[in-house]
Every structure is written in C-alpha cells, then in structure tokens.
Fold:
Amino acid sequence: MSILIYADSNNGALTKNAFEAVSYGAQLAQQTGSSAVAIVTGTVSGIEDLGKYGVSKVLHASDASLDNFDPQKITHVIAEAAKSVGADTIIFSHDYSGKSVAPRLAAKLDAGLVTGAISLPNTDGGFIVKKAVFSGKAFAFVEVNSATKIVSVLPNSIEKKIGEGSATVEAFSVEIPSTNLKVKEVRKESTELSLTEADIVVSAGRGLKGPENWGMIEELAKELGAATACSRPVADIGWRPHHEHVGQTGFAIRPNLYFAIGISGAIQHLAGVNGSKVIVAINTDAEAPFFKAADYGIVGDAFEVVPKLIEAIKKL
Ligand code: FAD
Structure:
C-alpha cells in the first residue's frame, strides 16, 4: 500500500502548503505502515527538501509543459504516478491547485474524495476523515469506503513534522496529453506575500474610510512580514483589489495571526477568517461583533492605534 502526495509549486519553488500536504501524507503512512511518495510537476527547485518532511522518494515530472498550471495535465500525470506506485491514497493541499485537481482525479480514478481535512484520518478498521463544515461551526466525520481514497488537507490545520530524512528524486516521464486549455499570456508574478500562505495577515474594512488610508495598513503589514487583506465591501467599491477579499465569498484563510482593523465582524466575513489561530480586532465600537471572535480587542480609532502599533513594532 502506498500514499502519493502532490507537492505543488509556484514560480519554480515548492509552496508552504506543499510541505504541509507532504508532512500529512508521511504521518498517515507512518500511522498505516504504508510508504509515502511525493510527486512534483514542472520546473521546480529544492525538491530534495521534501525528504525532511517524511517522504523517502519524490517523483519529478519535469516536462516544461507542466510549468503553467493546467489541471487537466496535472490530473493525468498524478493518475499515472498513482498507477506506477500502486497508491491507494492520494493527498493534496486544499488550496487553489488541490481544489481543481483533486475532484478531477477522483472522477478519473473512481475514488472517494474528502476535501478540507483538518486532522489525520482515523484508520482503526476504516478510513474516517474529520473536516470543518458550516464555516467552522461544526465538524463532519466522513467515511471513505472506496478502494482509492483522495484527501485534501486544509492549509495551516496540521502540525508539520520536520526531521533529518532525505529523499531520492526520480525522474517521472509520462506522455503529457494536449488539453483544451491554452495559456495565452503569463503575467509577471507579484512579489507580494501570498494571502493564503501568509503566517500573519493585516486586514482592514470600511472603517478605514477610503483607499488613500491604506498606507498605514501596508506599513504595518511590511513591519510584520504579513500579507494584506480586506472585507468584501472594500473590494466591491474598488478601494482594494478583489484578490484581497476574505470571507464566505472570498478567500478562506487560517493564518497564525489575523489583524481585523475597522471591520465589523459580520458572519460572512468571519466565515473566512475564524480558523485563524489568534485574532486581534481594532474597532471604535466596543459592541462590534468582531470582539466576540477576537482573542485580543482594542477599542479605539484605527487612525490612532495603527500608527502607535507600527511605532512600537519598529522599536522591537
Ligand atoms: P462595516 O460593516 O461598514 O464596518 C466597519 C467597521 O469599522 C464598523 O464596525 C465600525 O465600528 C468600524 N470603524 C469605523 N471607523 C473606525 C475607525 N476609525 N477605527 C476603527 N474602526 C472603525 N463580507 C466580507 O467581508 N467577506 C465576505 O466574503 C462576504 N460575503 C458576503 C456574502 C453574502 C451573501 C452577504 C449578504 C454579505 C457578505 N459580506 C461579506 C458582507 C458582510 O455582511 C458585511 O457587510 C461586511 O463584512 C462589512 O464590511 P466592513 O466590516 O468592512 O464594513
């Protein structure tokens, strides 16, 4: 029996979520006495580092046509890799690529799929996966009965185990099918920190009054090494780009530290951020709903509090 883990990459480097997924797969392999193998696609450096996360072998399908993300091609490559290693369980991160490849692969392999797992499956006589539902308000325990099982792991929900191991990297050559997806243009990748992978996120809402006031939010984020985010109305009215919008209809994030500045804490916003480990809310209204979800609350004017925070952090 073997477990195959898709280690995703971005701009030629493995993503933080890839290391998490590999660690999850390796821990599951240890629990079930299986072997764990990772698969990497396209031109990627630092693949050997995956050994430290518990896999002893990495298959590398390095065909340059896999450099631009095409879920149909990646699905085909992973299906072939699964066949070649006899994988009965395939692991993804529940991120952009996992969300688009895992369901395609499940259909192709007639496999049971559980998305957004938050802990290792219970494998005592079955295969039961725990996931959060209703925006984290309840848990579901999903039993997978199919011969092949696919699990996607919610980012930032498991502890990565890092050891001293090393992995052998094997070239994995497979015929890449032509697909109906054609990349017309590749825009230069932004140097901004990825919102879904950031450890710290500084987010602001309508309380900031206008786009011209985001300088202090960006400065605070820069001092903390954080990504920036915003509430939905802020993106809707064009104060900030849509790719910063978090919540039920935006990105769901689970950073270690989330700053909510001038955001009321509506249920639709909380749905995307309440998995954060620590939440700090700054709001002039002591009755703002965010204070109920926050670990730390500052009742005060963002225009006074944020500059003071920046000043204090600079002194650290
Ligand atoms: P407001 O509700 O206007 O709140 C501004 C806050 O700033 C207030 O609490 C105020 O006290 C505070 N404030 C004002 N001045 C200051 C100051 N100087 N300093 C500090 N604090 C100050 N919203 C999302 O964010 N994400 C979603 O994904 C999302 N999806 C939705 C889906 C549906 C179907 C619907 C119906 C709504 C959705 N919404 C979503 C909208 C959501 O209901 C709220 O309207 C929205 O989150 C409010 O944004 P806000 O907190 O920035 O603005």
Summary: The CA atoms of residues 6 and 171 lie 15 Å apart.
